[in-house]
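ARCHIVE CARD
SHELF: 3
SLOT: left
DATA:
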Amino acid sequence: MKLKKVALCIGLGLGAISSANAATDIRGKVLSEATGSSVEGVVVTAKSNVMPKARTAVTRADGSYSLPALLPGNYELSFKTQDGKVQTAQVQVFLDQTSKLNMVLVDPSQPIEVISVSGSYIVREGDSALTNSIGAKAIESLPVGQDFRDMMKLIPGVQYSENSTLGVNAGGSGRDNKYGFDGVDVSLPMFGNLSAEPSTHDIAHVSMDRGGAKAIGFNRSGGVAVNSKSKSGTNEFHANLEYKIQNKNFVADRDIEDKELAQYTTDKSWISGNVSGPIIEDELFFYGSFYRPEVTRDNKETAYGPAKDYKSVREEYFGKFTWAPTEDLLLDLSYRTSDRNGRGLSVGSLDQDSTSNGDDATQDILLFEGSYLINDSTTLSFKYSEFDYETVGAPDTTFDDVNPRIGDSLPLGQLDQIGLFRVPELDEDSDVYDNATAQMLIDQYGYVGDDGAKRGGGSIGGDNEFNNQNFYRDSFEIALDHTLEVGEAYHNLHFGFQFKENTEVLSRLSNGWGYIEYVGGEQFDNYEGDTPVYYAASVQQMSLETETGDVVAPITSSSKSYNIEVNDTIEHGDFIYNVGFVISKDVLYGQDLKANSSNVSGYEIALGHKYKMHTIDFKDTFQPRLGITWNYAEDATVFANYASYNPEASSLARAASWARNSQKSMDVLFDKNGDYIADQPASGSSGKFFQKGIKPKRIDEITIGATKSVTDRLYVKGHVRHRELTHPWEDTWNGSRLYGEYGPFGGVPAHIAEKGLYIENLDEMRAEVGGSSYVIAELDDAKNTYYEVSLEAEYSADRYFASVSYTWSHYYGNYDQDITSGASDGNLFIGSSNLADGIGRQLWDGKYGKLNGDKPHVLKAYGYYTTDWEANIGAYLVYQSGDVWEKWDGDLYGSSNDTIKYAEHAGSRREASHWQMDLNYTQNFTVFDNYTVKFRADLFNVFDNQTGYNYNPYADSETFGKPRSLINARRLQLSVNIGF
């Protein structure tokens, strides 16, 4: 029998958050070996265990075919000619990528043999997008970890990060990234971080796009867009159960001088299980899973005695149905729910155990999506999703029966039962401070010192605050894809529409009277009354009842996004042209105002009323996507791409809302007997107006690259990329341009000063409705720039896989969205941060230079090998340059606050570089034919390189220039998995 060559290649296609609309399909051409010409009328059928029904197409006049809207997985393709001859081939389809298979039909006079080509041998065709896809085999075989964010370390060119909140840097802010969990956008609304709690146990495929976007998938991220696809059922029943542990003794000591603090004290375990199979064979599949991570820690005694142990448990359930009632219709319905409870999270060494706090979170993700093949040329797809993430930071001890009201007295004999009371200390140097009363409180509430005497300085009662922060996102999208022939060119047209609504509901409530302190008759901030203040309670205004028993409502902030995308991928000869665009409309909604056109401000006060705060219109968000790929050889391409993005993430719906006026901390003041004296608002924020005519933040990108299939196993790719961000928004004082000359960098540049106020009539507007003297403005001359040169190589074979990448980059400018406070890894406002807040924090105050995330060299290598003895060995290696930092010194600006007040140009110093290796070993045993038992060990940071990062920039700190964080120590995880 004669085996004929099958030309096989994959064209990398862009995918983003929407799996329903991204390209996960197979395309190619059928040629005749005898004549070398294309063959029309060949029936191409794709079968896979993940697809309930096969998909079929018929080759066109030029021999081309397309099989759209597939689920990622391994496929067998059969090619049946009009005379009944059949040839087959195998191909692996990756998430959000197009697999391209060109079949050469053998001479009909020759015997037919099944031609089976493993997905490992696919020769890849280049494209203008920078997308990498990882299948189930790699996810299972590499030392990745349990959390969704752990997979970010596999993205070529993207720095390794151990941030728990802020996303990875990919030539821009980590807050501009997008994360798709089973196709649902789980980026935190308004903040852009991955603060939700997805894990990896259900994930079968991952795609990671870091640039060169098409107008497919509604990609506006301007950073990394990560998508995933969960496991599905098949025609066979399968189930497995896994238990994994990381004992505290499996973790190396932290590299710090204090030996007691150096010891790792947390035990972790994970239980996961799943079951899948058919409900109706070849039509309806199901998949279900359970996941339970647990974290425990033995807490030590405080000065008041034993403290409760910390424990955090999460229980997650997932169910999914895949239904193909016909060959042309495919539907997916899934629901994921998760509930986490944590207690004993933290307690101070001088505090009573009852003051400890915990946190709770619930997460629900609903997804319904489908695709309908109208005909061989046209596909209709849709997706509806709901994402709910509700969180609360709560005291472990609550005072539900204590309902504070302005005017009530403070029960001094029950200070440990009405809030968090800080026990006073004596102050012999003060002539005003009442030490006698302080001593009485110490005797009653203090802890016993080493000398047996009572001491103050600790805290008793319960933690002072409930922080309820709930996020919701509802999304609907629909897309139409159509292929047509025009002359000698084929057009793959895509039209899509998406509606998305993001909502945050925020309430901060005091536990009883909140935080209570002893003032002792001394002067209290901003209080001008005659009665001496002895006690002050800091109470959240939302907790204070009025005389009628009413309380302030939670702050509800929301935004709506409308996105339209049009894309045409044109195939003509050896060239592929991509022409498309995305246009968007974003509407921000606040609370407590109502439109009034007769007012100068356009508003009037209306407590509880939802108002339209600001609109970014379609005309301001034209985002072109242009690309060209030249297949100058069967196994090589060059490509170029231009793309623009207007990221949607913005916290301004809350940060600028008038409802911030009504949610303040109130200082309630009491006399020596605990009787009410007065109340006054503590420091807080208020609503803000927007500068007129501001353009939305924009990221422009140019990419040029080439690909080459050196052999049928070795694929290489290289590119250069340039990104530039302009038009960012921030809140800043309306008169910031008028600060004049000051500080080490000269103060306001003349060309900016001459522009004057951001809003000329702000005083008139505030006279009507109040609000802040700060405004939301487009920062003058703000931009950052990113250059990247990257090389990638991938090698695949039957039993091993390897990927190596090296990236040189440079990230600089004057707008650093990721370093806007002393704590960089947090849910910080986008567009309303410390940046541009007063003298020393303006962009002209030394902010131009290397920016956070400028790590010139990033080298990554990872892969796995399957042995002869049913074992798998995986490895991951990374080397990267250290991040940049600079000295902060407020004294240079006449301020005692140093935060982001630069004493030298941004990025003047660099942290230490870091490298680490992770390894894993899995041993498989087959028992009773259908059952498998797997023993696995994952060893992270094998050489225990605890590189310091997050250097202390505060000039007046004793630890200036020292790292405040360390890369996680070497740690071992062990697991056993039983399945069939």
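SLOT: right
DATA:
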Amino acid sequence: MLTRIVTLLLISLLSVPAVQAAGQAAQSADVIVYGSTPGGFCAAIAAAREGASVILLEPTDHVGGVNTGGLSFSDSNQTVRSTVMGLFDEWHRRIEADYRQRGVKLPYDVSVKDASKWTYEPHVAAKITKEMLDEAGVKVLTGSVLNSVEKDGATITALKTKRGHFGGKTFIDATYEGDLMAAAGVSWTIGREGREKYGESLAGRQFPKGRMQIDGFDDEGNPLPLITATEAGPVEAGDDRVMVYSFRLCLTKDPANRVPFPAPENYDPARFEVVRRYFAWEERPHLLWDLYPLPGNKFDANNGIGKQFSMGLVGGCNGWSEASAEERQQMWGEHKQYTLEMYHFLTTDPAVPEHLRNAMAELGLCKDEFPEYDHWSPQLYVREGRRMQGMYVLTENDILRNPEKDDPIVVSSFPIDSHDVQRVATKDGYVVNEGTIFPVRMPRRRNGYPYHIPYRSILPRQNECDNLLVPVALSCTHVAISSVRVEPTWMILGQSAGIAAAMAAKLDSAVQSLEYPKLRSRLVAQGQVLELPELPELPPEPEVVVSIDPKSLPGIILDDADATLKGSWARSTNFKPHIGSGYVHDDQRADGQSVALFKFTAEEAGEYELRMAYSAHPTRATAVPVSVTSGSNTTEFNVDQTQALPDGKHFRPIGTVTLEAGSETTLTLSNTQTDGFVILDAFQLIRK
């Protein structure tokens, strides 16, 4: 299979000019861009529009990165769209015009900056990208794997690649991996920082997903396949791991355009034993791939950030950025093999519920997409690679607390959002995915926090390199790249880098010496928005309707609003009456992770009758664990929530507890080994 991959990667996706073989006369341009990612092709177009001669070098044969490689929904609906302009907006307008000329009406209007989803087909994205590069006069040379960098002091003079020798005045590293900056001796890092390094609350280890109560070990005590660790590591510490990679596949159910998934070579069903156990444990099984509808009756298939198992090969991406081109070919093949095996498992294994097997089996590759690659995406979705350690390191604090900068080149507003980093099997019988950061958005809004990315974040330290810009593997932390790492932001960063590179080449100056006011004027002239947005006021929050006021009830009242909640809880007001503004339930997960903790101090010691409010129903759990600890006294109960409350009463007595006066009492409720919905509305304690 690897031979097949290598062969395919020698076929050009886009028609490009013939290139000189290594050893022939050197080629030169004002600006050399290495890497045709969305940031790379936008950098090349922007520099050319400023009057610079530009050569765009791409190490593979595929131009456009994931934008033309299967990612057909770039999440700009989760940004403040009025700030996502420039080449990103033009690119989408031209895609829209292409469909309109063919009589296809898209379900969105690019001129309307609302939260609708902008989607397209990969072959249309590739066509528009090529047209824009051609119109700008950019020379695109594929198969140009970097071999070495020539420098004179801190100045890059030329790049040596497998396809030739290229000199330039300024250079742009637009690779996902930061290959050029690393070869040029620029400082970089990879992985995750510890929480103390930059004072980031989202750094270190993250466990937002509930633990799965499944055994992650085989009969000999060895971790099952797809388990990457048996110890997560210290919670506060960093590491060298990166978030999961996956393909973004273009799929269809249309029989006229559907190509069956190829059967995986050497399929081993044992590889998916942990997923088999997951389906046996999961109360609400669902499709493990995210599917986004596209024009042409197609889908963009993506790794599901909220799913326990999905398209991403957790742990398989570590070492990608540091690997050679040949090693990356092998890792690319390993990711494809995993995806093919996962599809085969999901469509054939009896452990997968039949309705899910049937739903997955309807999907196939698209006959009219990626024909040179047997309809498979040529681009692996590299969500995170190396990160430069440059003039300014962008952090969580810049995003959430200090958004304004003196030298902005982008207004970014995508939520902070990281996919899984590792999958851990614990000795006490659980499997947990670690590293996910669920989207951090502004309260009551779909977008993240708007913030400036400063020019300094794409600049190396001048003593390390004075004519290089790094708009994709920019200077930031793992938490920050979790917001930056989407195509709208990278495209605008690339455009800004291209403009700066052209200006520096014309002035024959160091990129660090550009006068920011002059750079800003050219950014604005090319359509960029650099002012932080003034967001429209939100409508008033709906008034909270209290069914039964806790303050109107006698005794000690512990409403669910007073609890410290851990794990997954869902809020509801469906069943009335309820105490306070509603109640919470565990969604019938029974994973032992949904825990509610109350702490209070009784004014009088003695025996108290403990009562519980809940909405009784046959779907409720029959043995909800509740424990009360006061001083040296601990009392435990199992509450049957299928039992009705006494007529006309809001609470049902569940037992007697002894409370000490003046010392803290703890009441704990959980969903450990429960057999139905666990309801938490309120507790009442009445002194006997």
